[in-house]
Amino acid sequence: xxxxxxxxxxxxxxxxxxxxxxxxxxxxxxxxxxxxxxxxxxxxxxxxxxxxxxxxxxxxxxxxxxxxxxxxxxxxxxxxxxxxxxxxxxxxxxxxxxxxxxxxxxxxxxxxxxxxxxxxxxxxxxxxxxxxxxxxxxxxxxxxxxxxxxxxxxxxxxxxxxxxxxxxxxxxxxxxxxxxxxxxxxxxxxxxxxxxxxxxxx
Length: 202
Description:
Blueprint: H1 2-12, H2 16-19, H3 24-34, E1 42-45, H4 51-60, E2 65-69, H5 72-81, E3 89-91, E4 104-110, H6 119-129, E5 130-141, H7 147-158, H8 170-176, E6 180-189, E7 192-200
Parallel strand pairs: 1-2, 1-4, 2-3, 4-5
Antiparallel strand pairs: 5-7, 6-7
Helix pairs in contact: 3-4
């Protein structure tokens, strides 16, 4: 499964921004909710082509901003976008982050958490990497009874390689992993609910 996801995004990387442009405003909203402060250490998991990394770096200033992605193809595009900004880009499995525990003030995930069959496993790794009281920002397809969501889930069950995200209950998923949700907004993208959340460790 991991190898298939990696191959899909390697193949799509060159054109990804062309068909994923509708995601940008939700990603930007998630960055705003995370409220990264100057000097903080922040990591984006599933950094893709690097849009959010640029915004996170602007907010963190002299702090450390790091991008991690499984796809070498996506990282190549991101490297061009953030060239000269001093942002390390690392190809790694998000479930085995190459960082010591309690290393980061904040973690950001945009349209990434719902790619994992067991989102709680990724959130457990995020907890390991965060300092006590650390924050997490999540943007993800929000599970609901809306017709568009049910149709999407029907398509995901049949063509998981194409419709690879699986809508989740963003707030409940974060709280079940031990985070305290501080803000959750639900918006719509082409009729699909999108949850934008900011949460914190106790």
